Amino acid sequence: MFSRLKAFLFSTQDPYADDIQDFFSRLPEITTQRLLLRMARRRDASDIFTYAQDPLVAEHVLWDAHVHFSDSLAYVRYLREQYRLGKPSSWVIVLQATGKVIGTIGYTEWDEENEILEIGYSLSREYWNQGYMTEALQAVIRLSFDQLPVHRLEAMHEVSNPASGRVMAKCGMKEEGTMIGRVWNKNHFSDVVMYGITREAYTRS
Length: 205
Fold this sequence. Notes:
The chain is an alpha+beta fold. The chain has helices at 4-11, 20-25, 45-52, 55-58, 69-85, 132-147, 162-170, 199-204; strands at 30-31, 35-38, 90-95, 100-111, 116-123, 152-158, 174-185, 188-198. An 8-stranded mixed sheet has the order 1-2-3-4-5-6-8-7, sandwiched between helices. α6 links the parallel β5 and β6. The longest helix has 17 residues, at 69-85. The chain is globular, with a radius of gyration of 17 Å.
């Protein structure tokens, strides 16, 4: 049975969104004031390794700090395979001024039945606290609601990482509560805070 989202996508006039798999396989480029969000390329592995080997960057995400350059190559291969299969995946975040990849942002889960997309992201520590992730997340939220009839977008952060919650709040997402022991990360179960925004709330804002 098709969801309303899939039914919409099959009938849309948008050239890349014949269906949800096609959208995931050809994530559109997004340009903001300072950033370019685009699909990952093989040569991005070098920039990704520069920040992904930082334990502080990896502390609150579900992947471990990259130890070898091959870890970053494998990650890029994973992203590109997700594109090929039409599965939820991420854009790389490119700093327009330098052309350097400084992070990733994208969809981590797609709940077709309830028309929910979950968003996750990571950013090089060199660029923390400069508004870059807020800029990127705002753009992804806008694209998702403008081009896909999703009902809800959601994201979560570990309780020990409140800075991520502040980014979500700045982008109009609302804190909805803490889930105890929700995520297995770095060899322990972590409490996480859920944020969400519905299409209705986005339209009102």
